[in-house]
Amino acid sequence: MGVTTDEASLDLEDVAVVRRRALRRVVIIAGVLLVLFVVGATGLFFERQQAYDRNIERIPDAFPAEAGRPEPAPDPPARAMARAENWLLVGSDRRTEEGTTGEDANEPLWRFGAQRADTIMLVHLPSDRRRVYLVSFPRDSWVPIKGHGNAKINAALSFGGPPLLIATIEDLTGVRIDHFAILDFQGFEAMTDALGGVDVRVAKTVTDTARDVVWPAGTHRLDGERALDFVRQRYNLPGGDFDRIKRQQAFLKALAGRVNDTDVLGNPLRLNAFLETATKTVSVDDTVTVSNLRSLAVQLRSVRPDDVVFMTIPTAGTGTEDGQSVVYLDRTESRPLHRALRKDAVGAYVARVDDSVNQVDEVR
After folding, report:
1. Measuring CA to CA, how many Å separate 325 from each of 1, 14, 232, 243, 315?
2. What CA–CA distance (Å, rounded) separates 207 from 331?
3. Three-class secondary structure of residue 226 per DSSP
4. CA gap 305, 290 in Å, rounded
5. Please, is 104 exposed, middle or buried when counting C-beta atoms within 10 Å of its C-beta (0-12, 13-18, 19+)?
6. Terminal CA-CA length for the chain
7. In the beta sheet, which residues pair with residue 201?
8. Which of 139, 149, 188 minimizes the C-alpha distance to 313?
9. Which backbone phi and psi does 355 adopt, to 5 degrees?
10. Average model confidence (pLDDT) for the chain?
């Protein structure tokens, strides 16, 4: 018996209905899977975020008494993202066998003689967050330290912990420090290894006579141990500690560049290993919250290594005090930089004094 035209039409309509229902099911299932994926990924993100936050060691009472401290930076224009911030970043070559920063800290950070601030950097984040400005202070800078007369600036941490070091920098510059972070050089070593190494470029072959290490001219991929040798060298460099500062800055730029590489950002395992290591080896003041860090990461998301400007505080030569080799700071030349930091106008300062910027893509 043949099929009529009307019956064939009904069969086609039934098939279309079945197909539409199947398509709806597929779309619904895909939507559910997508939601589950987003929820799962979000849960994983927050779980990791909380884990990173738990890793970070907080330093209670890191700041000096409020009386006499400089005022915060002025409120930014309405179009700016946030208020300018100044972080004091300290790297220390520990003088004990015990870890002194991060979650492995087993001794007080400022037990006398246990630790000195071998790397001191004031990191200025302008309110527009388009660049980052990093100003290094030579560790042998001869400065007034409250209660101790004149001494090397790196002794302030040992004399009185973060509050005294922060007070010393604030008194010296008139710049208010908003946050404080410290890690020992072993932290740099661990972070370097977590990234699979970083690249630096040496201009001319040089030998570190203190460690019997030769640095041939050219590009070097540094693992953690070699990174420590690189940032610690000061002997047999033409500029001594000033060239050491540039090496430390070059390393930080290389580290930032490595984090920004696609094989790190695109590799969740490597990125997680780096963040785990970084958060386990750093100590910060107890006003730094995970919300602060998340917000800061979002604000600085478009900043690239070439947007980080490196400087050294102006100096007026070297000398000897009480049998110690010291560096004298140039108070007159430093005033415009201090003013620019206070007024959130460092970009304009750099444009006027271009020779104040350290070129660190290639170092001695």
Report:
1. 112, 93, 17, 16, 14
2. 34
3. helix
4. 23
5. middle
6. 96
7. 219
8. 139
9. -75, 0
10. 83
Query: Strand runs (DSSP E) across the chain, as ranges?
Result: 57-59, 85-92, 117-125, 132-137, 142-145, 149-152, 179-184, 198-202, 206-208, 213-215, 218-222, 283-285, 308-312, 315-321, 324-329
β-sheet bridge partners, residue 174: none
CB 242 within 8 A of CB 364: no
Ranges of H-type helices in 65-213:
155-173, 185-194
Distance CA(216)–CA(214), nearest Å, equals 6
Element (H, E) at 292: helix 290-299
Give the integer Cα–Cα distance in Å for 362 and 250. Answer: 8
Band of the pLDDT at 249, cuts 50, 70, 90? very high
pLDDT single digits (tens) 250-301 = 999 999 889 888 788 778 788 888 888 888 888 899 999 877 887 888 888 8
Question: Is residue 112 scored above 70 in pLDDT?
Answer: no
Query: Closest Cα partner for 178 from 110, 84, 109?
Result: 84
295, amino acid identity? S
pLDDT at 312: 97
Token digits of residue 57 = 């060691």
Please name the residue ranges forming H helices in 79-236: 155-173, 185-194, 224-232
Share of the chain above pLDDT 70, in %: 80
Q: Which of 179, 153, 206, 77 is nearest to 326 (CA)?
A: 153
Counting residues of the chain whose pLDDT is more than 90, the rounded percentage is 52
Residue type, 239: G
**For residues 171 and 160, is the Cβ–Cβ distance under 8 A?**
no
Compute the distance between CA of residue 46 and CA of residue 103 in angstroms, rounded to an integer. 20
Alpha-carbon distance values, 153 to 12, 90, 120, 125, 337 (Å): 87, 12, 9, 23, 19
CA distance 182 to 123: 13
Q: Considering only CA atoms, which of 91, 88, 100 is closest in space to residue 244?
A: 91
Q: Are strands 149-152 and 179-184 parallel, antiparallel or unpaired?
A: unpaired
